[in-house]
């Protein structure tokens, strides 16, 4: 092959994996590696054929911000993004964000430039640090082996995990003249369930009177097959918070299962005689310390990891396999046992019951409202009335996040995100992936201040957005004004109108005493 600089080849190979957007933190702006992504051009072979290289570099403030922006971008439906990081620049703190992407099953390509052999007086095994948080570590090795390393990166992406390509700094300027031909592993089928387990679970579903199916973040890719199974068995559908919105278009969706469930949702869940949980941890939050699962309920858990089964809740049966493969197998087996689809939970009585599955349908008790502050529930209920339907709701772990999840409707599972931190910059990434949706970030003053170093770049890349900040102190308002954003200090619900959200980015500072 013709001579090509290693950093340029990295950019080309990222484009070949389907990467379209590259997030680059401030300390790597205007470096050889960032220039390679900005100047990459030509054609490249991809799984879909020959395509033109057209990478979009996006500058962020911090390494943490770069990873969170890529996470928001991926969660909103964008293809895997690339993130460029320097291991000598706060990488140990960024590991926490990578671990968060692992938990959320958000694949991305992370190019990590190693520092010198000894960094800050200690020797670090970067690959071990990466695998320690659950991501895929791929040491790039010698310059001529870069194509083989990228094949290993693709393996990580196929597992819905961040894949970290660890490159040597001295290789970035190397010229590759004899690139090694990569070797590809034989195609592998997805994890499939054991036949005996499928038959047993299918019999339980066929005999169930009030079945319920719960989907977690590990089952988001299996929506259509899970819906088919629910239609056959007469089951209701629910999600954990990690898959909130997945079944929003389904008539018999009872909503989010967990501490924020409405009484209607909780009652339907408790009355289920058979529950099948796909890709859902069933932790204490989701089951409300076990109170959302009836004492005599037969619980079937489906997960790719045997370590996840029964970790938080005692189960009656388990299927260790991919959610989609299990749903297909169960639907086929149940159809053998039934002459026609069951009615199950799907009655007119249930339809009427589901009219109160949202908190918006329940008035806030007068004695809980105070005159000296804006009640978060009342505010979010009014906000739901004036926001456009096309939206992406992003919440963090602020005290009001639960209310936002309860009161703000979402279009689908890509229209809702929860990030313990970094919600503001994740919103920027989500906006790049889906510019047709208004970005709604709900946080408090500490969440906005935590995003200070990434705030400017986040605002610059947002087309339409609203930052809802529950605050007590004026500095939050002044910071937003400093960056030229219109700020509305909300002291009454009558201030909220639909024309606030027609264009641009706006800050709603909700006064809390």
Automatic annotation (TrEMBL):
GO terms for molecular function: acetolactate synthase activity; flavin adenine dinucleotide binding; magnesium ion binding; thiamine pyrophosphate binding. Residues 200-329 form the Thiamine pyrophosphate enzyme central domain. Signal peptide: none annotated. Pfam families: TPP_enzyme_M. GO terms for cellular component: acetolactate synthase complex. GO terms for biological process: isoleucine biosynthetic process; L-valine biosynthetic process. InterPro entries: DHS-like_NAD/FAD-binding_dom, THDP-binding, Thiamin_PyroP_enz_cen_dom, TPP_enz. Belongs to the TPP enzyme family. This is Thiamine pyrophosphate-dependent acetolactate synthase large subunit-like protein.
């Amino acid at each position: 092959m013709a001579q090509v600089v290693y950093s340029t080849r990295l950019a080309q190979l990222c484009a070949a994996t389907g990467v379209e957007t590259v997030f680059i933190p401030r300390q790597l702006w205007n470096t050889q590696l960032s220039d390679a992504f900005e100047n990459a051009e030509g054609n490249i072979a991809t799984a879909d054929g020959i395509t033109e290289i057209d990478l979009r570099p996006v500058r962020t403030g911090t390494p943490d911000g770069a990873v969170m922006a890529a996470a928001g971008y991926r969660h909103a439906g964008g293809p895997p993004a690339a993130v460029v990081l320097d291991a000598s620049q706060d990488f140990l703190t960024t590991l926490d964000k990578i671990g968060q992407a692992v938990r959320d099953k958000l694949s991305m390509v992370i190019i990590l430039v190693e520092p010198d052999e000894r960094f800050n007086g200690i020797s670090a095994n970067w690959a071990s640090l990466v695998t320690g948080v659950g991501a895929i570590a791929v040491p790039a090795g010698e310059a001529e082996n870069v194509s083989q390393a990228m094949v290993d990166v693709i393996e990580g992406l196929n597992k819905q995990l961040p894949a970290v390509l660890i490159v040597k700094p001295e290789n970035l300027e190397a010229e590759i003249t004899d690139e090694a031909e990569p070797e590809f592993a034989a195609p592998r089928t997805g994890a499939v369930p054991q036949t005996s387990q499928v038959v047993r679970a299918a019999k339980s579903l066929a005999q169930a009177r009030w079945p319920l199916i719960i989907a977690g973040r590990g089952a988001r890719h299996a929506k259509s097959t899970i819906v088919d199974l629910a239609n056959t068995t007469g089951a209701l559908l629910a999600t954990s918070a990690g898959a909130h919105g997945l079944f929003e278009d389904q008539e018999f969706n009872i909503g989010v299962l967990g501490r924020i469930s409405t009484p209607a949702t909780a009652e339907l869940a408790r009355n289920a005689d058979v529950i099948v949980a796909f890709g859902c941890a069933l932790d204490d939050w989701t089951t409300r310390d076990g109170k959302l699962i009836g004492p005599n309920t037969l619980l079937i858990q489906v997960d790719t990891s045997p370590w996840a089964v029964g970790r938080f809740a005692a189960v009656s049966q388990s299927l260790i396999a991919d959610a989609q493969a299990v749903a297909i197998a169960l639907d086929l087996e149940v159809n053998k046992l039934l002459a026609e689809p069951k009615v199950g939970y799907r009655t007119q009585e249930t339809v009427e019951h589901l009219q109160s599955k949202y908190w918006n349908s329940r008035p806030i008790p007068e004695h809980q409202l105070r005159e000296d502050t804006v009640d978060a529930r009342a505010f979010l209920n009014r906000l739901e009335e004036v926001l456009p339907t096309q939206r992406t709701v992003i919440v963090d772990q602020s005290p009001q996040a639960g209310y936002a999840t309860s009161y703000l409707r979402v279009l689908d599972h890509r229209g809702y995100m929860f990030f313990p931190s970094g919600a503001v910059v994740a919103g920027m990434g989500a906006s790049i992936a889906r510019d047709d949706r208004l970005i709604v970030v709900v946080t408090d003053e500490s969440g906005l201040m935590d995003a200070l170093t990434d705030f400017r770049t986040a605002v610059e890349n947002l087309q339409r957005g609203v930052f809802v900040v529950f605050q007590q102190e004026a500095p939050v308002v002044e910071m937003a004004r400093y960056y030229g954003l219109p700020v509305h200090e909300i002291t009454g619900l009558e201030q909220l109108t639909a024309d606030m959200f027609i264009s641009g980015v706006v800050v709603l500072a909700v006064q809390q005493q």
